[in-house]
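Hi Prof. W.,

I finally got the YkgJ family cysteine cluster protein prediction working! I wasn't sure whether to trim anything, so I left the full sequence exactly as given:
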Amino acid sequence: MPLAGRSCGTCTLCCDLPEIAALDKPANRLCRHGIAEKGCSIYERRPALCRDFLCLWRTDPSLGPEWKPDKAGLMIYRQGPQTTVLVRPDQPDAAAREPYASGLRLLAGQAEAAGGYLIIYVGEKVRRLRPID
Ligand code: SF4
Ligand code: SF4
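And this is what came out:
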């Protein structure tokens, strides 16, 4: 459920960073329907997968305003046991800065306590983050 008082605003990271096969969209390229820092040009008829998607910042009250994806330079989402962090390729150190580095270790700990795991993508590079490396 989306948290009250949180909206995407000018953020468009989930239309840019993930690969979306159903839209023939590669990773790290804005969807052909996307308008940078504005939103979706087909918003009223966007596909169900877009309607149903919420990043973790939209649903997790433990993530404060500094975690809004367009502010943090990264977006986080959960799918089954996997917590995925996608870092903007033009801000490759975003996940290494504080408060994000510590916060992501906490999220990795939560994921592992629930039997899952957390992975971070920076462009083509992917790694698993452990609560304590
Ligand atoms: S990444 Fe999150 S805040 Fe940004 S547009 Fe997508 S759902 Fe909204
Ligand atoms: S169709 Fe619209 S909401 Fe879906 S990824 Fe493309 S720009 Fe974003």
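The beta strands are 34-35, 39-40, 74-79, 82-87, 117-122, 125-129. Does that look reasonable to you?

Thanks,
D.
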